[in-house]
């Protein structure tokens, strides 16, 4: 059996981090602080949901079934990449910020399912449908972080985040999906890519200014493989699809985002040489899942349905179009 690319990604991150602190005066990370969307949320949306989003399916099985045995608020039946990073670093899994009264000394998670990079008020001003329609963007999550910072740093002096690992993202996927769900074309979304990447970049700078020394930044997944895109832009024209059955134009948009993000990361590394900024690649490992689903324990007849459950969780009611996406 081949080594799963997901595991390679994880090993790479952990190896980078080990390398990052081998020269330092301390031996390990003591906490993880995470920002992101459904790829990272460990329970914030579900805690927000009552009474804002009644009937959220994320609260029910099969969510949580495979590993935890009960729904945890993760948008998966198993664990997230973040859970594996925590485990590899010998840390507990991060409690969601909204779980008041949790012990955040070994980490806290601000990620919210559906969170965009741009704020809700701005996206709605563009007449975009934001789902869920709550203030949970990257910058809202940073406001939460700022509120919690005094208690995180209580009695720790100025270098309070010297042994904290910050994980930023992914962010951006939900912004692009908002365009598509609002009947905009890929061409109409494209001019917003620099602004979306800039929002992530400004978030990273805020973290550096708050004293972050180690930041992992994730790129976005091939968004042209998401059922939301496959459904919204469904076309009888086969040339619009790649060999994975994903929409080429939407994936191009994602790659454009990722290339601008890489440029920003380079710029930030130059600007802040005392902070280690690590780029985590999700785009290519994701395609490997589609290439060889069996190698990763996935069912090849349903590989493109993987995000279906999440959409169902958000939209609450099932729509007939989702089945179409899964049959592709
Ligand atoms: C919080 O967790 C840390 C380690 O994860 C532990 O040392 C500390 O005692 C805990 N604090 C409380 C109040 O439980
Ligand atoms: C929302 O984003 C817009 C555009 O980036 C910005 O001008 C505005 O200040 C932001 N609003 C809040 C409340 O963050
Ligand atoms: C949003 O919709 C309103 C009402 O239809 C319209 O007046 C406005 O110009 C639209 N704004 C944008 C940015 O498209
Ligand atoms: C989101 O935040 C903005 C600015 O703080 C506020 O004006 C708006 O009402 C909020 N929206 C929701 C749905 O809470
Ligand atoms: C998008 O188009 C569909 C079909 O024409 C329509 O039913 C739907 O209301 C539109 N959605 C938005 C957000 O404009
Ligand atoms: C794969 O999914 C299909 C469609 O849901 C199902 O009929 C089949 O039994 C599944 N195969 C395995 C090995 O789980």
Helicity range: 40-55%
Major sheet: size, sense and barrel closure? 5 strands, parallel
Average pLDDT rating? 85
Query: In sequence order, what are the helices and strands, one letter per element?
Result: HEHHEHHEHHHEHHEHHH
N- and C-termini, Cα separation: 27 Å
Relative strand content: 5-15%
Number of domains: 1
Oligomer: single chain
Write down the CATH class. Alpha Beta
How many strands?
5
GO molecular function, one term: hydrolase activity, acting on ester bonds
Signal peptide: 1-22
Pfam families: Lipase_GDSL (PF00657)
Family: Belongs to the 'GDSL' lipolytic enzyme family.
Describe this structure in words.
- The protein has a five-stranded parallel sheet, with helices on both faces.
- The chain is α/β, with parallel strands linked by helices.
- The chain is globular and about 60 Å long.
- It has a single domain, classed as Rossmann fold.
- It has helices at 5-22, 44-52, 81-88, 120-125, 138-152, 173-181, 186-189, 193-209, 227-232, 248-271, 283-291, 308-315, 320-326, and strands at 31-35, 107-109, 164-168, 214-218, 276-280.
- The protein contains 13 helices and five strands.
- Residues 1-9, 19-27 and 306-328 have low confidence and may be disordered.
- The structure holds 2-acetamido-2-deoxy-beta-D-glucopyranose (6 copies).
- One 2-acetamido-2-deoxy-beta-D-glucopyranose binds at residues 126-127.
